[in-house]
């Protein structure tokens, strides 16, 4: 029996959902990606720790997946065990009057709605950002002048050795679209704690609605994508540089630079990973030649 079968049998024994050769395009916002050798969905953090520990014991490669909203998976698929910590593990609770604890699999929209419901301000910027809390912490997600590091207090993670640890925000090396977890992928975020401020529910709701309306008017939400494709270069904006190069509407295969927002590469017509990668490289080359700026991809490519 190979080690993947051993892990599969173990997961079935402990009640963890286990799928073989599961298409990753079903689990990424880009709707692109070949099959994962094993796709595992633990029902809580404790089960996730057991699954990760067993995979480590068997020396199997593992990828932890949230909502797959900032991810491009290759067309061949992933020869590893994908551990999905998504909405099936969602849990949000008040710790005290201004502190919220939630599981890593909690959708950001659910966290923001919970904060609003309890009259807590600080997370409005995150309303409408696709993905889950774990992924947002992993990349220090941000928008409209706010970032996760502004409101994050601490995290709980599983170490590569399989133990649970609590990490203060000061230990997480949060910077523009980066965290400690991006540098050390052997860690798995299971919880995050946020420190917010008291506010007026109606004002919070209005701000959230305003930002959502702005997203809908400016971003191609009607097409599959991974959100903003490129990081913001120092002293400029990626979308403006791409627009300056007249690349809106540029297509390679089924991938296209959005005509609505030049910072988005979208899955316009059954794009493959190869289509998207070729278009990204074309954009980087054009922008470098015509503006002198070097664009860095924000999307994680597997």
Automatic annotation (TrEMBL):
Cofactor(s) required, per the database record: FAD
Transmembrane regions: none
Enzyme's top EC category: oxidoreductase
Superkingdom as given in the UniProt entry: Bacteria
InterPro entries: FAD-bd_PCMH, FAD-bd_PCMH-like_sf, FAD-bd_PCMH_sub1, FAD-bd_PCMH_sub2, MurB, MurB_C, MurB_C_sf, Oxid_FAD_bind_N
EC number: 1.3.1.98
Cell location: Cytoplasm
GO molecular function, one term: UDP-N-acetylmuramate dehydrogenase activity
Catalytic-site annotation from UniProt: 177, 228, 298
Keywords in alphabetical order: Cell cycle, Cell division, Cell shape, Cell wall biogenesis/degradation, Cytoplasm, FAD, Flavoprotein, NADP, Oxidoreductase, Peptidoglycan synthesis
Residues covered by the FAD-binding PCMH-type domain: 31-199
Reaction(s) catalysed (UniProt annotation): UDP-N-acetyl-alpha-D-muramate + NADP(+) = UDP-N-acetyl-3-O-(1-carboxyvinyl)-alpha-D-glucosamine + NADPH + H(+)
Keyword presence, Oxidoreductase: yes
Biological processes, Gene Ontology terms: cell division; cell wall organization; peptidoglycan biosynthetic process; regulation of cell shape
Pathway where this protein functions: Cell wall biogenesis; peptidoglycan biosynthesis
GO cellular component, one term: cytosol
Summary of the function given for this chain in its UniProt record: Cell wall formation.
Family named by the database record: Belongs to the MurB family.
PANTHER family xrefs: UDP-N-ACETYLENOLPYRUVOYLGLUCOSAMINE REDUCTASE (PTHR21071:SF4)
Name of the protein: UDP-N-acetylenolpyruvoylglucosamine reductase
Organism listed in the record: Youxingia wuxianensis
Organismal lineage: Bacteria, Bacillati, Bacillota, Clostridia, Eubacteriales
């Amino acid at each position: 029996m190979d080690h993947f079968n051993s892990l599969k049998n173990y997961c079935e024994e402990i009640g963890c959902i286990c799928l073989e050769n599961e298409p990753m395009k079903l689990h990424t916002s880009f709707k692109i990606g070949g099959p994962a050798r094993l796709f595992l969905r633990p029902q809580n953090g404790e089960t996730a720790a057991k699954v990760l520990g067993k995979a480590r014991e068997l020396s199997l490669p593992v990828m932890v997946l949230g909502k797959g909203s900032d991810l491009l998976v290759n067309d061949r698929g992933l020869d590893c065990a994908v551990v999905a910590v998504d909405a099936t593990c969602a849990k949000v609770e008040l710790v005290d009057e201004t502190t919220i604890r939630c599981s890593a699999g909690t959708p950001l929209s659910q966290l923001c709605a919970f904060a609003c419901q309890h009259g807590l301000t600080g997370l409005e910027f995150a309303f409408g950002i696709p993905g889950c809390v774990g992924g947002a912490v992993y990349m220090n997600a941000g928008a409209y002048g706010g970032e996760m590091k502004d409101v994050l207090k601490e995290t709980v993670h599983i170490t590569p050795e399989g133990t649970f640890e609590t990490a203060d925000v000061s230990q997480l090396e949060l910077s523009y679209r980066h965290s400690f977890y991006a540098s050390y992928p052997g860690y798995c975020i299971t919880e995050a704690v946020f420190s917010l401020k008291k506010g007026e529910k109606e004002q919070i709701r209005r701000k959230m609605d305003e930002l959502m309306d702005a997203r809908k008017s400016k971003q191609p939400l009607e097409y599959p994508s991974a959100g903003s494709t490129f990081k913001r270069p120092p002293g400029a904006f990626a979308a403006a540089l791409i627009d300056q190069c007249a690349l809106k509407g540029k297509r390679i295969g089924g991938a296209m630079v959005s005509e609505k927002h030049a910072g988005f590469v979208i899955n316009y017509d059954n794009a493959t990973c190869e289509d998207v990668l070729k278009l990204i490289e074309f954009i980087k080359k054009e922008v470098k030649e015509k503006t002198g700026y070097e664009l860095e991809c924000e999307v994680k490519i597997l």
